[in-house]
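Field: sequence (string)
Field: structure_tokens (string)

Example rows 1 and 2, in order.
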Amino acid sequence: MRLTEIPQNPAPPGWTLHEVAAADGVKLRAAVWPATTAQPRGTMVVCTGRTEFIEKYFEFIGEVLARGFAVVCFDWRGQGLSQRIAADRTAGHVHRFDDYDLDLDAVVAQLLPGSPQPHVLFGHSMGGHIALRYLAARPDVFQRAFLSAPMLKAWMPALLRLASTPLAWAMRWLGRGEGFTPGGKGNDGLATPFEQNQVTSDRGRYDRNNAILRADPELAICGPTWGWVGEAFASMRALRRKSFGARIKCPLLIVGAAHDRIVNQGPDVTLIRNVRSGLFLLFSDARHELVQERDEVREVFWKAADAFLDAA
């Protein structure tokens, strides 16, 4: 196991690497940073998005450490340097979305005991989606959670969305569950010029994240498989039910981006109305990856996060 550092993306000091075994035996890469203050404010578990990896969050982790928290960050199965699932290691694949629950279960069970309280859960996109599943299934583990653009509904034309689920299930029935969706094979994002990207308006951070992948290509994955799409759409439908939000007990902050073309923010608003204590904030001039955005966007993001984390 390793962490990949490049000059423009050094790891915050003090980390230790851990191999975490999920209940089904899948091995996960995780990193832990102890709090750097004499009186820690708690521990934050960072759940990354689809295609992402620990190294992409070094800047964010450093900012969390500076606020007095310990940090736990890990790679989901099938991506980063955790165990790959599909025969083609570049495929964005999972057998069941329930398997991601096993990953977070294992990280919490093996790395959180003895860590400073309170425990805070952060998740972005797919990581935010799985975080919501966890908060609803185990409402007493985390005392607070904040999510960036959680994956509750894909941004796509309505007809394509309607066709995606039956097509994905048909491809799985035909034995093509590990097959790439159109345009996914070989598409690790490195060929996408900044001007055509849909995740951030910050060129420096976009170039930095691509430089990490060029320095360590084993971190990359490409497009999703039909199996992943079928599981994702089924799980998103479940999380959009009105009854789902009522199962979340801890205070919840969701931040979304008005120019997001990866996920749709409408279900965020519906969900936040149904949780016991929730707040939704929309950033008018940002794209999908809020923590990878321009400094002026991130400054407001952190003001909102700090107010939420400090609130009684």
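Row 2 begins here:
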Amino acid sequence: MRNNLATDVKRREAWAWAMYDFANSGYTTIVITAIFNAYFVSVVAGGAPWATLVWTLSLATSYLLIMLTAPLLGAYADAYAAKKRLLLATTAGCVLFTAALYFAGPGMLWLAIPLIVLSNFFYGSGENLIAAFLPELAREESLGKVSGWGWSLGYVGGLLSLGVCLAYVSWAQARGDTAADFVPVTMLFTAALFALASLPTFLILKERALPQPHLVGKNMLQESFARLLQTLRHARHYRDLRRFLICTVSYQAGIQTVITLAAIYAQQAMHFTMQQTLGLIFVVNITAALGAFSFGYLQDRIGHVPAIALTLLGWMVMVLMAWAAEGPSLFWAAANLAGLCMGASQSAGRALVGLLSPVARRAEFFGLWGLAVKLSSILGPVTYGLVSWLTAGDHRTAILVTGAFFLAGLLILRGVDATRGRQAALQEEA
């Protein structure tokens, strides 16, 4: 492990960085993927025909806010060496608003929607910031491995949160409680685990970046805008990064659709109970952890671009399997293939952005990567929600349409040259 880290980075610091992935995965697993999304559709919105669309539009609103702020936060973090301070603020925001979901009961859309928007906004903003630490911790040739460690440990964190919630849900259902009784409590569990598990990150992880020379006569906001505009003006020097960000928008639209609507599809199309859905997602998290860990090593061996291409082919096979599934066996196989591809493609994408980013603008470029992911988080789930609504709840057609995003991403990826892109980043550093 030590040979994969930068010369001044100790193993405990790399572990502390990866622990943030462990900590924040509970939010996506419980709130976005496994429990609260299905609860929102069936209980908060009363199972209305438009419920899935409202859920996806709520998330789209939060992602739009992230898109508007992520590049500016990244520019500010680079200029003032403030990644860790901003990460602390976003973590506190996500924890507080997740805990507040405890109060969102049946019919309370007026409360549930803004809390989802705010909690997901702070989660996504923190996700960009923690990713920007990666190139400071890992050697260039080991970005895939170290990124994979974080993603795989993140899925373990998701498993812990899911295991705690599954045990509580089983106990609550055995005593006759309804979803309106036990789902709000799982929001408190999720918030508490996020807060506790993120402590090593803030206690051990170092802010290695130094403040950049400030622009004369400009305040913080003006300087952040100026640095962002400078990056966009110089974008022609990073054509491979730019093309990969476009590719990211496409294939992440499919991934974000699966993350956002997995439990809804399982319950609406496959008629799974909540316990069956939680059991499925629990196993899928194990598969995703294995995918993130193993593909990190494969990625460094065969190259970032071929590794991502391999995962996109897997995603297309998964969509066809889920669409064709009539019983649980084929759907379970499709879900575990999705887990394998999810861990691999998420880790590989983060590592490739780190490879293509010059040192002085890492947080800023990871902000642009976050912008691309959040744009995809609007495009994919909203497309699914619209198709579901227009087809009177036909989730099979909606998942089949999702496959087009992976195909488009694969075609765009063909034009990305990682070696050429890395040379452009090194020239900027020089």
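free_text_note (row 2): The mean pLDDT is 87.
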